[in-house]
Amino acid sequence: MGDSTHGRTARRKDLAAAIAAERRELADLLDALPAESWDSPTLCGGWRVREVAAHMSLGFRSSLPRTALELVRARGRLHRMTDRCARRDAARYSTRELAALLRDNAWHPWTPPVGGAAAALGHDVVHGLDITVALGLDRRVPDDRLRILLAGVDARTLRFFRAELDGVELRATDLDWSFGTGTPVRGAAQDLLLLAYGRKLPPGRVQAESGSPGLRRQR
Questions:
Q1: Do the beta carbons of residue 161 and residue 153 sit within 8 Å?
Q2: Model pTM?
Q3: 51 and 79 Cβ atoms separated by less than 8 Å
Q4: Contacts of 60 (CB under 8 A, 6+ apart)
Q5: Which of 45, 107, 113, 170 is most buried, by the most CB atoms less than 10 A from its CB?
Q6: Per-residue burial over 168-195, b = 16 or more CB atoms within 10 Å of its CB, e = otherwise
Q7: How far apart are CA 140 and CA 138, in angstroms?
Q8: What is the C-alpha R_g of the chain?
Q9: Furthest C-alpha separation in the chain
Q10: C-alpha distance from residue 122 to each of 51, 130, 141, 167, 208 (Å)
């Protein structure tokens, strides 16, 4: 039992360190963006870079009662709530402040309602990719972080993020990972992670054999 407890503690520490590193790296990246990039679209439909950055720090700034109140105002619709908050906060904070909120909260223990620390890492990694992929920036997420997230991809992940990948097998070309059955879709692990999280990728990011039904319908 002692070894098991020690192992869980070590995993929690490793996850916390990975989250902190991801937030600091993304804060540095945001600080380096030219001003015009903050108004560029991202892979999050309808959100510019500034809305994504504002959304990423919402959990650090909003208490549970305040979040519950925002959800009531949105009539229980989570996506409506997060969209309204992201747009409000993107207008409220400067770009420098939005980057600082990520850096200053690198070790913040916030986690999404479901999924724990691994879901918090996924939140940061995927939203970071929403920005960098859309902007054409050549940032590669470290393999250890990707492996954690790819190990958690399952049918529930696809349902939650509305990823329509029926009849598709995702095959990473840079890591030993695959998921699903059907027509092979090959690409970098972080691009396949985006597909599993319901993102629509720019052309040429992955290679799919003709007739791949999932990629025709991806959102």
A1: no
A2: 0.90
A3: no
A4: 101, 105, 108, 110
A5: 170
A6: bbbbbeeeebebbeebebbbbbbbbbbb
A7: 6
A8: 18
A9: 54
A10: 18, 12, 11, 24, 25
